[in-house]
Specification:
The chain is of the alpha+beta class and 102 residues long. It has a domain at 56-100: Seminal Fluid Protein  PDC-109 (Domain B) (Ribbon). It has one helix at residues 2-22; strands spanning 56-57, 69-72, 75-79, 98-100. A 4-stranded mixed sheet has the order 1-2-3-4, with no helix packed on it. The relative contact order is 0.10.
């Protein structure tokens, strides 16, 4: 009888572990198959962890509000007003609508 209870407890624990791991919101595990790694590569490396900013590329038909940031020609720009009409860094008078920040 005790062995049956132990087996049942272990089974329940295993099921719970799999159930919780399949619904975890932030999972950083990735599965890969059929991956061939060349034998002559260095398998050591650095991993960076942090918050990385992503800026959408500027688009002529984009809708922007004050404070939106975009990239254009390798520079980051921030909108000074809603719906700027000038191409940042290019059209004359662009600096009245955009600020180059990086």
């Amino acid at each position: 009888m005790d062995i049956k209870r132990l087996a049942l407890r272990i089974t329940v624990i295993i099921i719970m572990v799999f159930a919780v791991s399949s619904v975890t919101e932030y999972s950083y595990a990735y599965w890969a198959s059929n991956v061939t790694v060349p034998s002559n590569i260095n398998t050591e490396g650095d991993v960076s962890v942090g918050i990385f900013d992503y800026y959408e590329p500027w688009a002529s038909d984009g809708v922007y509000v004050t404070g939106d940031q975009v990239t254009h020609n390798g520079v980051i720009y921030q909108a000074k007003k809603d719906n700027p009409t000038k191409e940042p860094g290019v059209d004359g008078g662009w600096s009245s609508q955009w600020t180059a920040i990086g």
